[in-house]
């Protein structure tokens, strides 16, 4: 447990989010993103698309 916390603290927030989204996609769960065109939703859409590519390629 402690080793996991240390690894999470060393990972960037983007890497943690990408990993979580990729795991959900590989488990068969869909991702739903509401897109308004702002910086937050643009970042989330980019992460979701990146996670889809990682999951599709088996990463």
What features would you describe in this structure?
With 59 residues, the protein is mostly helical. The chain has three helices and no strands. The protein has helices at 2-10, 13-26, 39-56. Helices cover 69% and strands 0% of the residues. The chain has one domain (2-56). It comes from Dechloromonas agitata.
Can you tell me the residue ranges where pLDDT is under 50 for at least 5 consecutive residues?
A: none
Query: Biggest β-sheet, characterized?
Result: none
The helicity comes to 55-70%
For the record, the count of structural domains works out to 1
Strand content: under 5%
N- and C-termini, Cα separation: 23 Å
Over the alpha carbons, how many angstroms does the gyration radius reach? 13 Å
What value does the average pLDDT take? 89
Total beta strand runs: 0
SSE pattern, N- to C-terminal: HHH
Which term fits the overall shape? globular
Structural class: mainly alpha
Number of helices: 3
Organism: Dechloromonas agitata
InterPro entries: Rossmann-like_a/b/a_fold
Protein name: Phosphoadenosine phosphosulfate reductase
Task: Summarize the helices and strands and which ones pair or pack.
Elements: H1 2-10, H2 13-26, H3 39-56
Helix pairs in contact: 2-3
What's a quick, concise take on this entry?
The protein contains three helices and no strands. It has 59 residues and is mainly alpha-helical. Helix 2 crosses helix 3.
């Amino acid at each position: 447990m402690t080793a996991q916390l240390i690894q999470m603290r060393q990972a960037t927030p983007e890497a943690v989010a990408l990993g979580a989204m990729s795991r959900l996609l590989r488990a068969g769960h869909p991702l739903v993103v509401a897109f308004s065109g702002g910086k937050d939703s643009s970042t989330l859409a980019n992460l979701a698309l990146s996670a889809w590519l990682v999951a599709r390629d088996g990463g």
